Sequence to fold (244 residues):
Amino acid sequence: MSTLKFQSQSVATPYFIFALILFTGQILFGLVMGLQYVVGDFLAGIIPFNVARMVHTNLLIVWLLFGFMGAAYFLVPEESETELYSPKLAILLFWVFAVAATLTVLGYLLVPYSRLAEITGNEYFPTMGREFLEQPTITKIGIVIVCLGFLFNIGMTMLRGIGEASSKKAQVLEMWGFWLMTVAMVFITLFLTGAGILQIWLQRLPESGEALSFMETQDKLSIFYWALEATGGHIFDRLNNLYV
Ligand code: HEM
Fold:
């Protein structure tokens, strides 16, 4: 028995399946690298560390995209109370993306990177070789097309669903929630930037040799952390603590 409210939500299935396949690949290449740390010549000459690293991180980016797209194709029709605008487009983009991702990974594994750059015309628009942006330019263009098509499909579905909007009370609550979150994020960004500038100054810049240690610097920055706390950054600063 199908538990789907709308038939077109089923386009999410191939997205989820492929995301899981890519995730498995990511873990495998992670394990290859982990082994190469301890057994230096593991798969030497077959999968060099730098290639495994590139495949590992690129698979990560792409399975996340597949996963999020699948989730959106599943959730948005249900929330908008209408069928997806174009299930055919969603399936077409799935295949475009899946084939491009597979070819790109095969390219990393089977073709020397400089040769890959050459045959994909990197010289015309050099974008390869930067971390997380290793994809050949044609793959990057493909990703942009897939993302735009995805946004179009999801956007049109939402617009079609607008006729059956949620209740007035829910809309007001959503609006307040949206602005609270937005304003909080603006303040978080400002305060963290301020804290970062001061931190660099205190830890590194004084030339007289009085640079402070990390912990002393953190004490001086506490005013910024209290400001974050006070401006609704309470939830977000839990996350930001990871980065500061
Ligand atoms: C068995 C599981 C995994 C293993 C053994 C593994 C191993 C590794 C290794 C060895 C590196 C390269 C580090 C270096 O350059 O020296 C790496 C990088 C990375 N891994 Fe994994 N990984 C695993 C799972 C994951 C998962 C599940 C994620 C994310 C969901 C992830 C995200 C990343 C990222 C973002 C980098 C790049 C880090 C950077 O640029 O600093 N890994 N991983």
